[in-house]
Amino acid sequence: MRLYSLSVLYKGDPKVHLLKAAYDVSTFNFFQRSSVQEFMTFTSQLIVERSELGSRASVKEQEYLCHVYVRNDGLAGVVIADNEYPQRVCFTLLDKVLDEFSRQVSKIDWPSGSPATISYAALDGYLSKYQVWPPQD
């Protein structure tokens, strides 16, 4: 069971953009890592773009399962995991991350934010904490 990516995005009008993301590409060949990370970023944006506000979904993409949650306010989260990782846990993680993100990052910054301008450092910690299920405290 493995998590590969945890992303926070904003579903704006007309397009979706990435606010912050964490990746674990350590299991991939060194030369594949950047293209795998690009694939995960692109896939996350595409899935959010195709999802309705207020929806949750799990989408199979190649050998991965992409779990997406788009809130009514346009804030969205995507977890990319392997097929064995429990779906319920992914959605619990997305709830937790999006709630915390919305408390720490002003809503005014969402439409114009980018990974370079948004300061929210918790994603890497969540990705490593939830890497093994159940999490090791």
From TrEMBL:
A Pfam family the protein falls into:
Longin
Cellular-component GO terms for this entry? Golgi apparatus
A molecular function annotated in GO for this UniProt entry is: SNAP receptor activity
Q: Which positions fall inside the Longin domain?
A: 8-127
Keywords attached to this entry: Lipoprotein, Membrane, Methylation, Palmitate, Prenylation, Protein transport, Transport
Subcellular localization, per the record? Endomembrane system
The membrane topology noted for this protein in its Swiss-Prot or TrEMBL record is: Lipid-anchor
- Could you tell me the Gene Ontology terms of the biological process aspect for this record? endoplasmic reticulum to Golgi vesicle-mediated transport; protein transport
- Matching CDD domains, A to Z? Longin
Where are its TM segments located?
none
SUPFAM superfamilies annotated for this entry? SNARE-like
Q: Which SMART domains match?
A: Longin
Family (UniProt): Belongs to the synaptobrevin family.
List the protein's name: YKT6B protein
Source organism of this protein record: Haliaeetus albicilla (White-tailed sea-eagle)
Q: What is the lineage of its organism?
A: Eukaryota, Metazoa, Chordata, Craniata, Vertebrata
